[in-house]
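Researcher: I'm comparing several assemblies side by side, and this is the next one on my list. It has 547 residues spread over two chains. Same procedure as the others: predict the full complex and return the structure.
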Amino acid sequence: MLLARADQVTRRYGDVLALDRVDLTVRAGEMVGLLGPNGAGKSTLMNLIVGLRRPTSGRIELFGGDPRDPASRRQLGMTPQETGLPGTLRVGEVVDFVAAHYPDPVPRGELLDRFGLTDQVRRQTGGLSGGQRRRLAVALAFVGRPRLVLLDEPTTGLDVEARRTLWDAIRAFHADGGTVLLSSHYLEEVEALAERVVVIGHGRMLADDSVDAIRSVVGVRRVGFVADELPALPGVVRSELIDGRHHLLTTDADQLVRDLVVAGVAFSELEVRPTSLEEAFLAITAEERPRDEPPVTATAGR
Amino acid sequence: MQLTLVHTRYQLLEIVRIPIALIGSAFFPAAAMLFFVVPFAGKDPVGATYATASMVTFSVMSANIFQYGIGVAEDRDQPWNPYTRTLPAGPGPRLAGRVLAGLALTYLSLLPVLVISATLTAARITPLAFLLAIGTVAVVSVPFTLMGLAIGYSLPSKAAIVVAQIVFFPLAFGGGLLSAPGEAPGFIEVIAPYLPTRGAAELMWATVGDYPMRPLSLSMLGVWVVVLASLAVWAYRRDEGRRFS
């Protein structure tokens, strides 16, 4: 059963192309991670799915309907940005306010207990710590007993303990049959929670695969050295020559170095560095690639 | 309907938690009562009654322009507002709740003026006229609610604060609220009928006394309501288009 679907969705803000023909399906029971650097289009995609924005072209379906119709959002849970909680309202009041919108909300005490906020029920949200605010924001997504929950960067900026509490709550929801779509720019978070990963960069869908398959792509290394002519080398995702120095991106740095030696390349100043998530994304979004070519790099393993 | 009341309650809660916001809209009219009405018209029952009605109009105007102009503009800056739009309800209950809460606060802001009028002046009103006046306040709120919404939806909060402050004093003065009916300085008598404050004040005066309403003021009030409603709808749509389309 499809809970949410994006079909060739494009979204522009003026001249800026935020999403470019994105396809996404979220099925019941899945836990999908939406991975991409800041500004990749993750939040735009989420805003389209919850009906805050309309696609410029293409189609969004939520529970088989238009997300802009309130009835389509009855089984949806979304989390506000923690900075957006009304500072003068108490924790319990904020929960009650959201609960009033649903026919069968989770009792307040039970929800706050699940997110470790029981002692804060009478506190104004403006007086909470960053971690408590974040937990409250995420808790609100679960008030209405949703079938699908969208979490936009749920644990960004949290300490380890607060992050664990949230991860446990999200896992418990999923174990009960709940469906989750969460965005993050941390591979670690997506690895810890998701089974399936969708990678977006520059508004395009770069990959949609298992966590393992994505990890191998994101595990790209940068091999740099000074040399003259290079023979053709297998396993190079992308190569650059800057000021006489070669920079090769590869998924297997060991093999690449062996190949260099075997090929008799007279290299010097060898350096092997891990790439950041951002660099890895850039590697798969390389400008050289014609726009209409499918994003093969990441999906080759399927 | 139930949801509208929930939104009303929470709007009120948010405002009541910062009580200084309430004092703001009640302060000017109450101060004007104390400094101008009590010493100059306090002894004359008719004059004091009209003056109280003027101050009530003043209060209704400032309460509405400020709470909608600034409140809406500030809300638009807050990420909480878009979040509420992901709940299974349209923007309707939130807007309706805001207007109901606004009306409740408008009535609340009138209390100081009424208390001062009842205790320190000779103003008199029959129970029937008092009940009618409660209804008139709601009617008179309409143009100023629309004006506040137009300001709040079209400007960022810092600009909205300034515009609300610039707008409300000339409207009060130019509409002749600070003088007895028919006794404002000459140029004000000329421009007053063209301002929404005058039509509103005349409605109040006619409710509490024998004031004969002038067709010009009343029809101009109608024109203002139409113009301000179009402005508010335009600003609301533009804002929706920018943030939610």
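Model: For your comparison table: Residues 287-302 of chain A have pLDDT under 50 and may be disordered.
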